[in-house]
Design brief:
Layout (H helix, E strand, L loop, with lengths): L9 E5 L2 E6 L2 E5 L1 H10 L3 E2 L2 H8 L7 E2 H8 L9 H8 L7 H18 L11 H10 L5 H8 L9 H4 L19 H12 L7 H10 L13 E7 L5 H16 L3 E5 L2 H10 L7 H7 E3 L9 H11 L2 H16 L12 H5 L28 H11 L2 E5 H9 L10 E4 L5 H8 L2 E4 H12 L12 H9 L3 H13 L8 H7 L5 H16 L9 E4 L5 H34 L6 H30 L8 E10 L2 E11 L3 H7 L6 E6 L14 H10 L9 E5 L5 H4 E6 L7 H15 L3 E4 L3 H17 L4 E3 L7 H10 L4 E4 L16 E4 L9 H9 L3 H16 L10 E6 L17 E4 L1 H11 L25
Parallel strand pairs: 4-5, 6-15, 6-16, 7-9, 7-10, 8-9, 10-15, 17-22, 17-23, 18-20, 18-21, 19-20, 21-22
Antiparallel strand pairs: 1-2, 2-3, 11-14, 12-13, 13-14
């Protein structure tokens, strides 16, 4: 098929300047000329928000080739750069700004050529979507429609082409079986293959984890195995062996729970060894996340049928294209490219998911095609459910036991269980939370985009046939008017609160400001619940009575709905029953929340509960107030985790490469294990866990060096920036720079980006580049000359093996932030030793990014003159920690780093090699 040259110029910002390519060639232009071009001329570019950021311009509009790629190749991944797109399309790469600008034109031409005549593999649905995009003034629409031509047959719609789920029989009872260590080792041998290298550590790990699949002998006493497996042991296949055997023989389901989406994807990939046939794998393995991760078809229908206009409408149409080809409708970490939502603004994706529990279940016309319902029903028959810690705990909190329940659970990334439980079992009474409750009951008070509907709208037509139910629903809506309404924050700040809850929030804010440190400008503020002002105590009492008044009609409504289900009147059909049951589930959750709020308010002015840490908080971003209220966390969140999750299971494997603490004042031989038991909930169980540990097979002494730079003072930003620039230059890129404060990250980035660019070394940065963290890691992984700066999200869960990561730089010891919550835990769990435990764990996780396979080599650099020697135990045995000045560190980094790679930057990624970023959901 002949490629037709495009009439538009292409604008590319490379390391060597801003380049413009058109039919006459490529030339360098200055910033002002580039801005004028974008304002006056349709221009090809890649990632408009990033281009605007680099130009220092509020918004860059043009023909974004990423949008065209998303239309032509929905549900396919590409690194969102010129080179990434070119690699996927089979085009030759380029190595300077002029050639890259010309390559951008070639990418666009190739994409339009592929759609000519509508004969490519993802053509179904394209014509209807292109026409809708044309009505929305999508810049690519005329060219796409011209290339497509008129369709020969009726074009498909996502709302009719997605498969329907079928209701299955109730699951059979789970049989009691026992998996021996030898059986598990035999399954492992089949998974690794006959020609695989013998790995004694992996075999021993498999035999040990099989103990979690023995029948439970005592109620509330699961068989728990704590298994620490150093990087490179192969723990994924190690626990998949006994897990798959138990699932097959018992007819039960094993839940594989992770903390990061990256590991969920890795597990999904590894299960292909168990089930090579994709059709069999699809029925035996299910990936699960929270409801808010999945596309809601009813929200999508509302959006594409006129609910959204402008850029929001274009995004909805592109998502509709993706939905036709998506594996499971997962919009967060699934096969929707992370960069697509970033092109349309931070809230684009949220408007198409069910984030507020407004699902109408069987009342939805797309119920039988719903992605979420597909996943839930797939769970009922699956051998393996790949979930995350957040979903496992949320299901436990809400009393959900999906499918065959969670009798056997493997918690990978087990060192995160404490933090995951801390989030799952926490509670907050804030303005933001309270107004969400109001909207869930009443609905939005102003016209807004999306399909937000209150409880009355969701149930009104059903209870219209029941006088008592209709009256109770009306009472609930009336009582909910006491909750904060739109504009509550402005009224609280101005001192004109309306209603008992807003007056409580105003009193909380006044208390916080009365005790806040004046120097803490720009950051969130908090204070302990001690010696409260009388006005706050009175406001809390009044607010508690108002909340109880809200709960009364909701309790009665729930009782009436339960009675309707039991009575089964003629007008309540199957779909209506499902809607009522969905409403009952939501009511139970909200009533539990209101009850917890009332208990929290009773604490104001009363005695403290030793199990909880309560504080008053004012949330701010860059000095702008965004929320205020009262927060409550468990002092030890593993207590409710053990009760709600572990004790309900029959067996659990808790595993990680950094499960044990290496920092302790206790001289007992098992002190490190006792720390891990305390932080995973095992200490709260009747039976002690089985302990297993196997060191990494990597030769860390040969592969890695750990340097502590002694002449860079913390807080000296110019010196810090100079250190980062020198170290990254010495390694010729391939560096991951980790910061404990966003402000220092931004300051360092501003000082070093330009000088590194002059050396041909790209620098990406979280919180600066308008790209999600997962996509930044994709771009970093694809370019061995690139470096990446980030914060906590990049310290754990980033998997970048090979030459793309050969240097990790940590700006200082990652001590825990001094908050009210941390102060309480520090006092309860060992004082300075607790600080050391947290900091050393973070250091171990950061070091773990460096060596991912036996051929990797690299340097870990910690900038800080006063790093305590005891924290150096965080690093693997065999690694020598050297304290050196910066110039010596630069010499060592240059020596340890591989030679500068040949000009093959932006190497292609396979379609399933997507980002490796932490995001608990």
């Amino acid at each position: 098929m002949t490629t037709v040259p495009l009439p538009w110029p292409a604008l590319h910002i490379g390391l060597d300047g801003i380049w413009l390519a058109d039919g006459e060639g490529a030339r360098r232009v200055d910033r002002q000329a580039a801005i004028r071009l974008l304002a006056d001329t349709p221009t090809l570019l890649v990632n408009a928000p990033l281009v605007a950021s680099k130009l220092g311009y509020p918004e860059a509009s043009g023909l974004d080739v990423l949008e065209l790629f998303a239309f032509v190749h929905p549900a396919r991944f590409a690194v969102p750069t010129v080179h990434g797109l070119a690699a996927l399309l089979g085009l030759d790469s380029a190595h300077d700004g002029a050639a890259e600008a010309r390559l951008l034109r070639a990418v666009a031409e190739t994409l339009l050529t592929q759609v000519q005549g509508g004969k490519w593999d993802r053509a179904p649905g394209a014509w209807n979507t292109a026409r809708a995009l044309s009505r929305l003034k999508w810049p690519w629409a005329p060219a796409v429609l011209s290339a497509l031509g008129e369709p020969r047959d009726h074009d498909r719609s996502v709302f009719t082409s997605l498969p329907k789920w079928e209701e299955g029989a109730p699951p059979a009872p789970v049989r009691e079986v026992e998996i021996s260590g030898e059986e598990a080792a035999g399954r492992l041998a089949l998974l690794t293959g006959s020609g695989a290298e013998e790995r004694p550590g992996q075999r021993a790990y498999t035999v040990a984890t099989a103990g979690a699949f023995r029948p439970r002998e005592i109620r509330d006493a699961p068989n728990v195995v704590l298994a620490e497996a150093g990087t490179g042991i192969g723990k994924t296949l190690g626990y998949l062996a006994p897990a798959s055997l138990w699932a097959e023989q018992s007819g039960g389901t094993v839940w594989l729970s992770t903390y990061t989406k990256a590991l969920q994807r890795q597990l999904d990939h590894e299960t292909a060894r168990l089930y090579p046939d994709p059709r069999v794998k699809a029925s035996r393995v299910v990936v699960r996340k929270g409801r808010e991760n999945y596309l809601c078809l009813l929200n999508l229908e509302d959006a594409v049928q006129g609910g959204f206009a402008g850029r929001a409408g274009i995004y909805a149409q592109l998502v509709q294209r993706w939905a036709m080809y998506s594996r499971d409708g997962d919009m967060v970490g699934g096969d929707l490219p992370g960069w697509l939502s970033g092109l349309f603004g931070r809230n684009a994706r949220a408007s198409l998911t069910d984030r507020r529990g407004e699902c109408v279940y069987a009342g939805c016309p797309h119920y039988r095609r719903c992605f979420i319902e597909h996943a839930v029903r797939g769970t009922a028959d699956a051998d393996l459910v790949i979930a995350n810690h957040a979903l496992v705990m949320v299901n436990a909190v809400r009393g959900k036991s999906e499918g065959r329940g969670m009798r056997r659970i493997v918690f990978d990334e087990g060192h995160h269980l404490f933090d995951a439980a801390d989030s799952a079992f926490a509670m907050a009474l804030t303005g933001g939370e309270a107004i969400e409750l109001r909207r869930w009951i009443i609905g939005p008070e102003k016209r807004s985009k999306g399909r937000r509907r209150g409880l009355a709208a969701r149930l009104g037509d059903l209870v219209a046939f029941d006088g008592e139910g209709a009256m109770l629903l009306e009472d609930a809506v009336h009582a909910a008017a006491a909750l904060p309404a739109d504009g509550w924050l402005g009224r609280v700040v101005e001192g004109t609160p309306e209603g008992p809850l807003e007056r409580l929030l105003a009193a909380v804010r006044a208390q916080v400001y009365a005790r806040a440190d004046a120097a803490e400008t720009g950051y969130g503020l908090e204070t302990e619940v001690v010696a409260l002002q009388p006005a706050l105590i009175d406001a809390a009492d009044t607010a508690a009575r108002a909340l109880e008044a809200v709960s009364v009609p909701l309790v009665k409504l729930a009782q009436r709905l339960e009675a309707l289900v039991e009575e089964a009147p003629d007008w309540l059909d199957g779909a209506g029953r499902a809607r009522v049951e969905g409403a009952l589930s939501g009511l139970a959750w909200r009533l539990g929340l209101i009850g917890a709020w009332v208990q929290l308010l009773a604490r104001m002015g009363g005695p403290a509960d030793p199990d909880f840490v309560d504080w008053l908080a004012l949330e701010r971003i860059d000095g702008r107030e965004i929320d205020v209220g009262i927060r409550r966390h468990w002092l030890d969140p593993t207590k409710p985790f053990a009760e709600a999750v572990l004790k309900q299971a029959h067996g659990a494997v808790i595993t990680s490469a950094t499960l044990r603490s290496r920092i302790t004042d206790d001289t007992a031989p098992d002190a490190d294990w006792r720390d891990s038991e305390a932080r995973t909930g095992a200490a709260h169980l009747p039976l002690p866990p089985v302990r297993f540990s196997s060191p990494s097979p990597f030769d860390y002494a040969r592969q890695a060096r750990v340097l502590i730079v002694t002449d860079v003072q913390r807080g000296n930003v110019p010196a810090l920036a100079g250190a980062y620039r020198a170290l990254i230059s010495a390694s010729r890129g391939g560096a991951l720079g980790l910061f404990t404060a966003i402000s220092r990250l931004k300051a360092v980035h501003a000082r070093i980006e330009e000088s590194l660019a002059r050396e041909g070394l790209p620098l990406f940065a979280q919180h600066i580049d308008p790209i999600d963290a997962g996509t930044l890691v994709d771009m970093f992984r694809a370019d061995p000359a690139a470096s990446l700066l980030g914060t906590d999200a990049l310290r754990d869960g980033v998997d970048v093996p090979g030459d793309s990561l050969r240097l990790v730089v940590l700006e200082g010891v990652p001590w825990p932030r001094p908050t009210v919550l941390h102060a309480a835990r520090r006092a309860a769990f060992g004082g300075k030793t607790y600080d050391d435990l947290v900091a050393s764990g973070r250091m171990a996780q950061a070091f773990g990014r460096l060596i991912r396979r036996a051929s990797d080599r690299g340097t870990f650099v910690l900038l800080g003159a006063a790093v305590p020697s005891r924290l150096c135990q965080a690093f693997p045995d065999g690694v020598t920690v050297e304290r050196v000045p910066l110039d010596e560190a630069v010499r060592i980094v240059r020596e340890m780093s591989a030679p500068a790679p040949a000009p093959t930057r932006n190497l292609p990624m396979t379609p399933d090699a997507t980002s490796g970023i932490s995001a608990a959901t």
